[in-house]
Amino acid sequence: MINFPELRSPTLGLGNRQQGVALAISLILLVVLSLVGLSTVRTVTQQEGMSSQSHDRSLAYQFAEAALREGEQQARIQSQTANAAIPTDQYIADGICNAAAVNRCANGLCSTPDPDCDPRWQNSAFNSWTTYTGLPAIVSQTGNILIGAVGASQPQYFIEILRPVGTAVCTTPVGPNFDRDCNQKFPDPDSSLPCSAGYPAPPGQQYCNFYRYRITARVQMAGRATVMLQSVFSVQPN
Known about the structure:
This protein is an alpha+beta fold. It has one domain. The protein contains 2 helices and 8 strands; from the N terminus they run αββββββαββ. It has helices at residues 11-80, 180-183, and strands at 105-106, 109-110, 130-131, 138-139, 145-147, 156-161, 211-219, 227-235. The longest helix is centred in the N-terminal third of the chain and has 70 residues, at 11-80. The relative contact order is 0.15.
């Protein structure tokens, strides 16, 4: 009698091993899908935040621009009244910053800046901004006032009358307020003709009698960056 060795199926053990590999692969795929889902949620949240900040910045920019235009209009009014409401202090380039010059302002109308001082809008001691209240408030869906109302972020501006930077002291003012050579010796910004030393100007020259103002406007929204705009405004008073 011949005894044959016991025959076993070679696929039985392989099948068990295959089931174990499938479980491991399933767990790996589940982890990968979970990470992809979390990444997608995080991306959507970031995009919503960026969209909200972009919208708020756009509002702040528009309000700052409105305050800038208001400042330009006030500068035009001052030019027609010989700058009667602007402090007449004059400062020269002498290498010394006059601390009193920083807040030498009245209702947002400021004297010529001292060229030896930091610009007013960069000086932490400057507190002579004037608030522009001619805009409606912007209210969020939850009822929070975002911008444009008392207690919220209101647009502000200030106006500086400029003079050519130099070391010469102003002479006797022409008229009741400002010296023409100090504050009115600017050319027409739309003309390339050189300035004439006298009046009337000879052919090929112009009589430089433009006032020049610098208007700075800003909006500070809580929890957001400050939006600041600036323009140099030239106007002929007569």
